[in-house]
Amino acid sequence: MDGGYTLRTRKIMTNKLLHRLQMVVDIIHPELGGVSVEKIKERLAKTYKAKPEQIIVYGLQTAFGGSRSTGFALIYDNKDFLAKFEPKYRLRRLGLLPAKTGSRKQKKELKNKRKKVRGKAKATVGVGKKKK
Q: Which residue windows does the record flag with biased composition (Basic residues) (predicted)?
């Protein structure tokens, strides 16, 4: 119990199809308001002899009254499998994919402009004019 919290894993399952280890993570932190995902990743990396970049921790919820949190952890065999099987929004969170740009209105306007054009011209709609 170093760092003021205890980390326990349960329901550990090896998923060979997705090349990962799946588990439920229970964190008991009586003196702390919560434990950061980075600290949890480091502790799991040390316990399961993996690199923190291969670990995904998500779905953390603190129990009513505090001092106890529960979430999920995935430990991938390597970073390639992580990039292949993780949803895009989690990859964006990790910084492995670029963030989405443009407002919702801009995307809708572009979609409607493309509807009015046929063939190869669809690719050039909304790109902008070349500077001289």
A: 102-121
- 21/15 Cα distance (integer angstroms): 6
How far CA 102 is from CA of 15, 59, 94, 98, 125, in Å, comes to 37, 27, 20, 13, 16
Rounded-to-10 torsion of CA 95, 97, 103, 106? 160
Distance CA 63, CA 8 (A): 15
CATH of the domain at 77: 3.30.70.3370
Range(s) of the domain holding residue 51: 6-86
* Residue range 36-91, pLDDT digits in tens: 899 999 999 999 999 999 999 999 999 998 889 999 999 999 999 999 999 999 99
Instruction: Count structural domains, the chain.
Output: 1
Question: Domain for residue 94, yes or no?
Answer: no
Identify the residue whose tokens are 């500077």: 131
Residue 28: name the closest of 45, 10, 13, 15 by CA: 10
Burial of residue 8 (CB within 10 Å: 0-12, 13-18, 19+) is exposed
Residue 70 lies in a domain: yes
